[in-house]
Every structure is written in C-alpha cells, then in structure tokens.
Amino acid sequence: MTATLSEQALRDTMVMLGASLFARGYATGGAGNLSAKLPDGTLLATPTGASLGRLDPARLAKVSMSGEHLAGDRPSKEVAFHLAIYHNNPACQAVVHLHCTYLTALSCLEGLDPTNVIRPFTPYYVMRIGQLPLIPYYRPGDVRIGEELGRRACEGNAFLLANHGPVVLGKDLVDAVNNMEELEETARLALLLRGQPIRYLSESDINELKRVKP
C-alpha cells in the first residue's frame, strides 16, 4: 500500500484487516480502532463502538485533521489521540489501537520500565518496533492520552497505554498492522519467558539490526 492508494481501496483494506484481526482474536466486541491518512489529507477511521470483525466500508468515518467529522458514522472518541500522533509525527500514515490479550496483560503489570517496556530479545522486535515506551494510566477518552502521545510521537513505532493496551504506528495501514502483530507476539513470548534466564540482545546486536529493514 502507498500514500496514493485510492479512498475506496483504503476502505476495503481497512475492512479486510479489521476482519482478519478480529478473526484471530486480536480484537473482541467493539474494542480497538484503526485509522489511516487519505490522499486528500483527511483520515479514514473506524466508527465508535464498531466491531473490527463487522466493519462496513461505506460507513467508515471520514475525519479532517482538525477532528471534524466529515462523513460516515461517528468516529471513535479515541481518534483524538490518533490525530495527536499524526500532527506530531509526519512519517506516520496509519495508527492501530487494540486491546489484544498479551500486550494488555503486560500493560497491567507493576514495575515496568517506562522508557522501554520490553527489553529487546528478538531481532524483529528491534527492526519493527525498536522500543516500547509506557504511557501512564488515564481513563479511556482522557485528553491526556493524546497529550502524552503527541509529545512522544516521534519516539518510536509503538506505545503501551498502562492498564489499557498498545498504540502502534506505520508507514501505511498494512505496515501498522504488521508492526502490531509482531509486537503482540513479542509480548506473548515475554510473558512466557518470565522467570526464565533470557539471552537479551547486546547493544552491538541492536545497533546492527537498526541498520537492517524488516
């Protein structure tokens, strides 16, 4: 997918990816939301309360960069923090926010490193995500989530909202979903390995990987 993808193609892609995430258990009920930039500078986003498994391409919300609802069903209230990321990270073209099982479980643990929740131990975590900053807990919809994400939007491709779930960025919607899937698998492995001796990647390992594209 590229920045020149037509609006209808992006609508169809968002529905397809939402259904795939839902079918594989990454999203349940009406939780989670997706957004992506359109060629005209507006956003396409999933509607409020919509199940990612039952999206209608014609009813996806269209939103201006100022947050005005332009067409389709009403967008999720969390589109506000998507907008904060877009405004502060021009390279970001899509945002995925889920309540997927392992990352949400990880977000509920005490004693997490706020600068990087998962210490690198797999190469693709480094190449796709790099690091995972922790955003302090705020209730869903609190404007401070957007303020925190906007302030830190260029720190990486992913953030973990404490007691809530992940927010993942991408150069397009497919890339953002791929990043999310890699991050969820990394969280699953991290929880499986808790209490076990882990061979973490060295600084030289990490620096070498940063020069390699996924």
Descriptive notes:
A hairpin with a 5-residue loop joins strand 3 and strand 4 (69-71). By secondary structure, this protein is an alpha+beta fold. Helices cover 36% and strands 14% of the residues. It has one domain (7-210): L-fuculose-1-phosphate Aldolase (3-Layer(aba) Sandwich), CATH 3.40.225.10. It has helices at 7-23, 79-88, 101-107, 123-128, 143-151, 173-192, 203-210; strands spanning 33-37, 43-45, 61-63, 69-71, 94-97, 134-135, 158-161, 165-170. The longest helix is centred in the C-terminal third of the chain and has 20 residues, at 173-192. The model has no long low-confidence stretch (mean pLDDT 95). The protein has an eight-stranded mixed sheet with strand order 4-3-2-1-5-8-7-6, with helices on both faces. The protein is built from seven helices and eight strands, in the order αββββαβααβαββαα. The two termini are 16 Å apart.
Helicity range: 25-40%
Strands in their spatial order, largest beta sheet:
4-3-2-1-5-8-7-6
Q: How many distinct domains?
A: 1
Topology, number of strands: 8
Function: Catalyzes the decarboxylation of 3-oxo-tetronate 4-phosphate to dihydroxyacetone phosphate (DHAP) and CO(2).
Family: Belongs to the aldolase class II family. AraD/FucA subfamily.
GO molecular function: aldehyde-lyase activity; metal ion binding
EC number: 4.1.1.104
Keywords:
3-oxo-tetronate 4-phosphate decarboxylase, alpha+beta, carbohydrate metabolism, globular, 214 residues, L-fuculose-1-phosphate Aldolase, 8-stranded mixed sheet
Task: Give a brief outline of the structure.
With 214 residues, this protein is α+β, with helices and mostly antiparallel strands. It has 7 helices and 8 strands. A hairpin with a 5-residue loop joins β1 and β2.
